[in-house]
Amino acid sequence: MTVKEFIEIIRHPYTINDDQVYELDEIVKEYPYFQAARVLQLKILHSEGNYKYNKALKLAAVHVTDRSVLFDFINSKTIIPDFSALRRDFERIRKARERKEAEEAENTPPKVSYIDHEPRSYRPDLPNKSIFEEPIFPEDLVNHQELADVFIAKEPEEKPKTDADNISQWLENISEEHNEVAYKDDKVAEKFKLIDKFLESNPKIEASRDYVSNVNLADEVKSDPKQLMTETLAQVYVNQRKFKQAIQAYEILILKNPKKSAYFAAQIENIKKLQQNNL
């Protein structure tokens, strides 16, 4: 952005384009106390109704010396009269930016182009070995044949099996299976002998027919409900809100199973709390 372009934008802020807006933002970031650039940026944000306007207004109020000039420029279409001072400020900033870019260019190493020469056609490296096969002489063939004959002579020849050999192998397999079955039969027979010997040496135990009880076992169970009391039944009483029966059930369980007395006692306390809450 040149000085002429900058002054023209101040005179006619609505003629600014997107590239100039970006350059103006960069100038404000780099030189926050450049009042003309900051005020111009604020004017453009205000005219566009941009959401960044409120934040930019606070920053401009901090960096601008005369806030009344800031207010008048934003809310009116007046033109800044002193363009000579504005031109000097902008020129000073432009030169400062040029010096900075020159220093960065000196400190930046030169870029090396990776294509310094014209591309060459790729040719694969050929092997140094000759592509022609070495000649084979008759004496070499004789030596190879002798080695092959020796190797074959060392290998044992497998004789083809005859029918007699197959029958002999089959008979051996049958004999082994027969011996295994006979061994198992001998073990079973030995067990039966031990059982018969036990039955012969011990007389039969006959049931006594002298006394037959006529007591109804069902009546005994009904008369003693403690025998049927279980933890499941106690939980059923709790679910049915029969708290009194549930407490009695757990008291019976404490007597039947003293090892779990602490657990049953804790259940009784929980039932009592439920009973109080349901009163």
From TrEMBL:
Name under which the protein is recorded: Tetratricopeptide repeat protein
Ranges where the record places region Disordered: 97-119
Origin: domain of life: Bacteria
